[in-house]
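Appendix B: complex inputs.
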Amino acid sequence: MTKPIIFLQRAFREEFIDKIHAIAPDYQVKTEITPEEAAAVEISVGWSEKFNEPLLSTNQLKWVQSISAGIDSLPLAEFSTQNILLSNGSGIHALSISEHIIGVLLGYYRGLNQSVKNQEQQLWGQNTIHYDQLAGKNLLVVGTGHIGQQLSRSIHSLGVNVYGINTTGHPVEGFTETYSIKNLAKIVSGMDIVVGILPGTQETYHIFNSDIFEKMKQDAVFINVGRGDTVHTKELITALTEKSFAFAALDVFEEEPLPSDNPLWTLPNILITPHISGLTVDFQNKFMQIFLANLKAYVTTNALSRNQVRLDRGY
Amino acid sequence: MTKPIIFLQRAFREEFIDKIHAIAPDYQVKTEITPEEAAAVEISVGWSEKFNEPLLSTNQLKWVQSISAGIDSLPLAEFSTQNILLSNGSGIHALSISEHIIGVLLGYYRGLNQSVKNQEQQLWGQNTIHYDQLAGKNLLVVGTGHIGQQLSRSIHSLGVNVYGINTTGHPVEGFTETYSIKNLAKIVSGMDIVVGILPGTQETYHIFNSDIFEKMKQDAVFINVGRGDTVHTKELITALTEKSFAFAALDVFEEEPLPSDNPLWTLPNILITPHISGLTVDFQNKFMQIFLANLKAYVTTNALSRNQVRLDRGY
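Resulting structure:
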């Protein structure tokens, strides 16, 4: 009988392939597969839409290890029907995203973004610089998962007071207080900074909309590094145009790349970054820590030990 | 007899004037003085060159409380001759400058500066983004005073290893190791980030020159927020042009504002900020904490309790 296949939809260094073989000697490891081999794939590392049909038509697939944290673009209903295990890459990008957020805030508060623009025109322009202090600000993390917790640890040490929002308001270490997502509109009114780090689900779709923006402080900052469609883009444009709050920084968008005619581009009070917050040096090491631990658990107990996604809730 | 004068060369809020009167009831407080009154000024808060002659010609002046940390533009030799006490504003700007430096580093490492430039052209440009991780980097603080110590505390909590340089290499809390300034050229070769926070003295003039730049790592970053003339600008331009190291960020310059024809403006691997790192919200509160403490000590013991400058060494 043919050995079942571990299909790597992305190339990894030889050292990691060796470790996979050592943990799972009864499997073949492939980075390319023929149509016939598709039927023998039991474990897929990464996912792309073109494999929906070949990998899901034979009931052979047992486990998908996603590379990213977000898994909302995967065929979750079909995974559920076929009892396919799913784990994600949550945590890998936490440090990068946390550094991105702190950089965005200081770029705004310390006038660095404006300095970059002035420099392009060889303009000294000290009087064009808006400045403020990060320390002492109240920051609301909407989504208290791996990334939110990393951000909380880092930015708290810079003197920021960190509050959290999650589904039920359950307490999470490192947050001064946590609230239920139901109370979002109420809580934002006391915050200097609101950071969206939400997964894409039915419940989070367009959750950042005019109801929220209108309640924010006039000098508040909104950052989104979660899913693009958690933001109601049109209502955000209105809010920024009317200066309901002071400044937004988006790294994710409802449509990516952001179309060149989107009005967001030319608003004066926004920073647009091209989905870079998660770019991570030493990605393979960080990812393999998760995958190899899961692989060990899978071959010995047929279960996963890290980052399993609950298919019913979608994260 | 006329009461001696406390001359405020800058306006402060009424609440602080009241506190000055309460601590020093035998003094007049003035923010403008006539030529005749100049002879009665015993304490000057702030200094500007035009008062060199009127305030120093009568031997009445006893104490100058500088507003900034840097005092190299003041007539130190004359102060010394007349035994005039001098205290500076060191510490007021420490938090602002620390936030500035962290913002500059993350703006570079997380590709935010490039994103600002791309946004100006409505360009998504994810493939133009250089990214790296701040955590894990080795940072050398050249000048372990108030600002260096604040930076060390903040950035260490972001996972950065912090080393220090001071005159003698004496240990300072919060630094993994400290070295004598004599060893600067040797130490920079192991550092990812070199931050200059030096006062302007004869010893520090052009201390950051080609000898140093040539020894830096190819991917290293150099930041100067100390005095502009601690950097040999021409040699820095050569080093950046030849990519001796990767990136520089300057907030201070040998000539300010930086002349529009200075070649620094158009180098691709530099961030120029217009002497903004010390801009501080709530400045009056922070400054008055120093001045009022000193005033109390001065009127009771004729000495200063905070931030006294040693005129022989110039900081």
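Chain B has eleven helices and twelve strands.
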